[in-house]
């Protein structure tokens, strides 16, 4: 009997499988996972322990067995026959489906310059093992890209005694999704730890032992890692004729243009509340969308609504952000000398985003409350948001109207 087939054994695909079963789905559930080992979480790959890359399993074989979920490892979905509702796998086998989820994630963007293929990238456990295996004390490592993963990687590598240079095309590190004041503080910590950071530079070439910049400078490099973002893995969606742009297009229930095929996680471009399609690349989003897709394939009618949340750990600093944190903050709250939160309001004084930085988990509770405030969609008093004496929890109560 045709059941649910899930292409991709990352956080999103595995979460979807459990969610479908939890929703009461009684048919077969098969996860087809291209990677050879048991599914693992990716965030620990750039926050490894003393001994190297940290492998944090997403689930145990026992739990999969208890939930009667078949996991095919080291096999990928090769093609989709939409009319026959059947996928063909890389080992030649075929699987019929009633519902198919594409949770194929994303792949690292490649450096386009001459010698760019010499650069390593960080997406899989194997990538992490390769990078940390090369990171002996004194080794000169150049990280290209000062986004979250590049900067996390730099923090880990300098901690292992490597000599680390970060090269960034933009005018400052973490320019894409971290408020400038918080990015400046994180960057300051990197500089204090001994990381060299060069911004507004272009890469001309990667040679055997150097990165050559467009202005002619040569950065000696034993190892080069490109951390210049990812591109969604939309190959299956495109080949099977689904609507694809920056990701496989899905509606708020995560259905593609074929009602029997869903897409979720890093590979999906999702219709958001404001009627704009967006793609997210965060662990929580992979979990949330996986959960919704799994339940919907089992008959629920849930809608994705956000807001999306992410975190980053660098040295002892913990960054967290939720929702839309682009532009100028409407209010800044400094709870102590080391902890600050930035709040972003829309035209109706409703919270749409918040970002915070502190030591360890210092901002976690407030970012959780900020998420609740975003979901509540209530107008807020901007002065109270900035006042550290006011508990954010209290602001969840609607403002009294006289
Ligand atoms: C190093 C690193 C650190 C990160 N740190 C953070 C962090 O601190 N905070 C945060 O919020 N997010 C972080 N992220 C992002 C987060 O891990 C991703 O958003 C999340 O893993 C996406 O999950 P996914 O299941 O959609 O995709 P993926 O995890 O990419 O899983 C997709 C899987 O599908 C497989 N696949 C592809 N095509 C096929 C096919 N045809 N058939 C079968 N299988 C296929 C792939 O091999 C892959 O295993 C980090 C990511 C990386 C790489």
Explain this structure.
The structure is a single chain. The model has no long low-confidence stretch (mean pLDDT 95). Helix 1 (11-22) runs parallel beside helix 7. The termini are far apart. This protein is 23% helix and 29% strand. With 402 residues, the chain is an alpha/beta fold. The protein folds into 3 domains: 3-107 and 231-297, FAD/NAD(P)-binding domain, CATH 3.50.50.60; 110-226, FAD/NAD(P)-binding domain (3-Layer(bba) Sandwich); 316-396, Enolase-like, domain 1. The strands form 6 sheets. Strands 1, 2, 3, 4, 5, 6 and 18 form a 7-stranded mixed beta sheet that branches. It is globular. Flavin-adenine dinucleotide binds next to helix 1, strand 2, helix 7 and strand 21.
Helix-strand layout with pairing:
Blueprint: E1 3-7, H1 11-22, E2 29-33, H2 61-66, E3 69-73, E4 77-81, E5 86-89, E6 94-102, E7 106-108, H3 125-134, E8 140-144, H4 148-159, E9 163-167, H5 180-193, E10 196-198, E11 203-206, E12 210-213, E13 218-220, E14 223-226, E15 230-232, H6 235-239, E16 244-245, E17 247-250, E18 261-263, E19 268-271, E20 277-278, H7 283-297, E21 309-314, E22 317-323, E23 331-336, E24 339-345, E25 351-359, H8 364-376, H9 382-385
Parallel strand pairs: 1-2, 1-6, 2-3, 6-18, 8-9, 8-14, 9-10, 17-19
Antiparallel strand pairs: 4-5, 5-6, 7-15, 11-12, 12-13, 16-17, 19-20, 21-22, 22-25, 23-24, 24-25
Summarize the structure.
The protein is of the alpha/beta class. 23% of the residues lie in helices and 29% in strands.
């Amino acid at each position: 009997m045709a059941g649910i087939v899930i292409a991709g054994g990352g956080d999103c695909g595995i979460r979807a499988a459990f969610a479908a079963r939890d929703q009461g789905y009684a048919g077969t559930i098969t996860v087809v996972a291209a990677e050879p080992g048991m599914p693992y979480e990716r965030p620990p790959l750039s926050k490894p322990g003393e001994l190297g890359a940290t492998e944090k399993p997403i689930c145990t074989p026992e739990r999969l067995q208890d939930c009667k979920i078949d996991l095919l490892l080291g096999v990928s979905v090769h093609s989709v026959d939409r009319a026959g509702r059947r996928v063909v796998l890389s080992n030649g086998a075929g699987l019929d489906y009633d519902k198919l989820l594409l949770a194929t994630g994303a792949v690292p963007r490649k450096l386009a310059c001459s010698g760019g293929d010499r650069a390593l990238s960080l997406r899989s456990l194997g990538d992490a093992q390769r990078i940390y295996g090369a990171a002996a004390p004194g080794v000169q490592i150049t990280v290209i890209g000062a986004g979250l993963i590049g900067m996390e990687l730099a923090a880990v590598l300098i901690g292992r005694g490597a000599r680390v240079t970060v090269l960034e095309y933009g005018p400052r590190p973490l320019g894409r999704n971290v408020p400038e004041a918080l990015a400046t503080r994180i960057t300051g910590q990197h500089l204090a730890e001994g990381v060299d950071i060069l911004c507004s530079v272009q890469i001309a070439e990667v040679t055997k032992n150097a990165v050559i910049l467009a202005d002619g400078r040569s950065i000696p490099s034993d190892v080069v890692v490109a951390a210049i973002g990812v591109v969604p893995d939309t190959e299956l969606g495109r080949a099977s004729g689904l609507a694809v742009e920056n990701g496989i297009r899905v509606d708020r229930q995560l259905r593609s243009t074929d009602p029997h095929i869903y897409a979720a996680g890093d590979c999906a471009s999702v219709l958001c509340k404001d009627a704009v399609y967006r793609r997210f690349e965060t662990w929580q989003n992979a979990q949330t969308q996986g959960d919704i897709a799994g339940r919907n394939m089992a008959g629920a009618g849930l809608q994705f609504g956000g807001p999306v949340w992410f975190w980053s750990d660098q040295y002892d600093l913990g960054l967290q952000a939720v929702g839309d944190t682009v532009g100028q903050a409407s209010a800044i709250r400094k709870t102590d000398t080391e902890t600050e939160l930035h709040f972003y309001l829309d035209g109706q004084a409703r919270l749409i985003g918040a970002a915070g930085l502190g030591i360890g988990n210092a901002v976690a509770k407030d970012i959780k409350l900020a998420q609740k405030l975003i979901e509540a969609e209530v107008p807020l008093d901007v002065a109270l948001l900035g006042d550290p004496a006011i508990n954010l929890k209290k602001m969840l109560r609607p403002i009294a109207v006289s």
